[in-house]
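Last lecture ended with a question: if I hand you only a sequence, what can you say about the shape of the protein? Today we answer it with a concrete record. The protein is RAB3GAP2_C domain-containing protein. Below, first the input exactly as provided, then the predicted structure, then a couple of comments.
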Amino acid sequence: MVRMWKGYRDARCAWLEGVSTLDRKKSKYELELQPSTTLFLIIFAPRRGLLEAWSMQNGRRIFASTVDRHGRLIGIPRLSDHLLGHDERAASHLPSVFFLSSDGTIHHLWIPFHRALSDESDFAIHDSSIVKEINHMMKDGVVKDFSTWLQFFRALKTTRAMRETMDLLWRDCNVDCYRLVDIMVSVLQHVESFHAVRKSPDSDNLVTYVATISRLLDVYVHLLKINSEQPNTTTEEFEKADIAESLSIDKEMLDLCLQRISEHHTENDSSKERDFTLAEFISHFDLTQANLTTSNGTRLKNKLVKKTPAFGRLLFCGVLTGRCSIHHFVSSVLPQLDLLEEDFSDAFCAYWLSPCDDLVRRLRRVLILFKHLSEVDSDGQSWLTKAERNILNSQELGAALTLCLVVRAIAFNRKHSSRIKATTAWTQKSKKEMIKKHFTTSFVSFLLIKLIFEINSSSSSELDDESHHEDWDEVEISLEWWDLLLRHLQCMLVLKALPGDLRVCLSDLINSGPAYYREQIGRWSAGFSLDPEHLYDIFNDPTVVNPKIKWEVTIGELRKLFPISLSPELVVCDCAWECIGAWRRHKDKNKACELLEVWVPYTKTVKFVELLGEVGILQHGICFMLWDTFLRQPFRYIYDYLNRKSSKLFRMLTNPRFIHEHFPSCCTKILRLLRNSVRFAEAMNENEDSSNASIGHNLFEDFTEAMFEFQRRKQTKPKKPLSLMAGLQKPVNYPLVCHHHDLAMVIELQVALEEWPPGPKYLFDSIGERAFFESFYAHPLIPMGSVTESVREKRMDFLKKCVTHNGSSEFTRDLRFHIYDLADDWALSSDEIKSKEVITLFQKGLDCEARDVLRVMENMELLPYELFEIAVARVRKWFDTNEKEDLMMRSLRISFINDRMMRCIRESKMEVALVPPDDINQLMRQVRMCLSRVQPNDQAFKIDRLALDFEKLITMIQ
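The predicted structure:
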């Protein structure tokens, strides 16, 4: 409810919609721009002769006039009545309310849109026009006449308009900051005088806001002047011995840290850094914080809403490059900013831990600056905590290492100074208490007390003498943590030197567990072109490292840093996992599929897993985890697709031919390796010391163990290493694995040789089909070879069809092994399949390969007769291609051919390859040799005679 009207008798009402001349911004729900609208209520009271207009936005009267009492208020109704904002561009500007006087005069009622704002005050309308003028004057971010701008600003009457104009000045206007200082002085004087007159909370907040902007402007100008000066070259040079003492660290350790930085840190090109504008500088501060006060009336300190490297560069670059002294920076610049202590720490870390150069040369100034800043800290610990958090999350390892050196030195000095203060305070207190207690004792008691003091002082001096405990190292728990961070940062610098863009930081190490370095090497190997066997050799024998290849040198150095955890078997285990999981980490499915199709990570995964042959328990565990995590579900998509149940696989991949080349082969090899390694897991499971054997997969260097010992004190358990989880896997169900391996070989044969439909399920019975894709720890009863005769016939026909592809480009050596492995698992006759293979090879003219198969055949009952048909077809083919020979040769040929030979040639319909006559003779002799190994009968005798006659014929023709 907006308002209620009473006392208007016999009144007539009409609705009038006011429309602005400027279009408002389009919202996301609107298709086109719409004008701003407002609704007015027109009331005509005839008894009083009064015509009024009321704003429905706030319920205030905006117009009143006396009119003819005998007149008539006429409203033209439209479809959009009572629907404020209904967009009818043509109807919105048509007159809708009229007043008809008694003399017949028609008055059109029209109310300007801005009258809806009259509730705020007439000052708001006044200021809105001035703000428009200022916007027009500041067009394109340039102000040419500041005197006019100041006149406009002084003409404003509301704090809201003043605030808006101030925001336009420093945020959107490109003004010389040195000139802006004088303008801000005039603006601050005006708002202070304005507040002295109004004395309202809004005017007070405006004064605070302008004063804050003015103060930040002064700081910005001051920092610009500092950064524009020449660096001070007369400062002391960098000396390792001095800086080592200042950092409270051994010189050898400091040299090693600096060596790591110089070898592996990449310098930043500072010439590409753009200027940091005033608007960007002020936008880093929370300007609403300036209006808040504490309970005792004191104003709160400024607060940063964001900490960027550009802000830190403007703030700290001048003092770190020697353009101003540290004393001047701490005593003059920092008080003007009036920031919270933790904001200073975050701003410095954001700058220092960004890509920058001259890390080592500025180390001394950073140390001195940090000591001064830490002294400003109220509790003495928030600085260290903030710096530690930033170091843990930083990927700029060189900068993080230098900052860690500095923070460690400050922590060491704090512990040392606090220990001295505590010891001194305890000694003074004890002396006073003892003297007060024994003040009234006798002279003998006094001598005893003196003797006790002398003994205590001598014993304390002996304890302080380093010669008495020179073989002991003083260890402070908190300082040990910083030493561990230093050690790991050095190792990470070496790790990040590997080609590519590895994301390496200490927080990832803590979250990923002690096997973090192995995981990172695995991720690197997934994206880098290398031979898995060569990588294994480098970890196994560092002497094979080629000093001219940078990545091999880096791997060799990492092997020296981690002699326990980077054993070749454990690294290979993580490499296999990361290679196959690389495409799963991509959020974009299309890019992940492109990576999967082009890069083929599965091939590299299989090579890594094959290298684990000497560690069967690891091979068993990693094969099962790869199948269960990455392979089973996509492999099921292929199974369903070949059975015409689903096309999800083809929707997932942009290139469906990928399944013809890589994925089924990977599944087959992984399942074969799992099948062969089950015996190792079973033997380990039966062994009572199996738990001790897995300990070797969970051993790490002492500094890595110490790092996670600190995390255990925080009640956080580190993630288990992959090798440990693989070694703890229980033995899988061997028959079930064999069953899935057979399915994988069938699918690989079908998709490679395009021998489908029918799908793979038709080669298995219903029991075997239900067992597919069950957990390998389940125990269903699977009939491997004991199936119905119809299923056996389907399997034999399928294998014979597959073996007929021998000699083609798509038929590989692995596919041939799959055929005979399936025949062995299914208890089928391999000689029958070999007979089909021999026939196929002789038909294609591949006699050498066919004879190799014949040598390993045992049963060849029907083979000689089929070979004889091939030999006759070869003779026919040879005769058909030599029709243009001379008459003497033709007559010679006819004279040696009898009727039985002619009938065999005429009846031969088999298509064979054209081969030389010598190959035909050798095949005839092969037929006779095979006949000698079969049961003698009349047909064998007849074929033997014909083969001998053909052999003589060919010899005579040659």
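Comments.
1. Residues 240-417 form one domain.
2. The CA atoms of residues 569 and 615 lie 7 Å apart.
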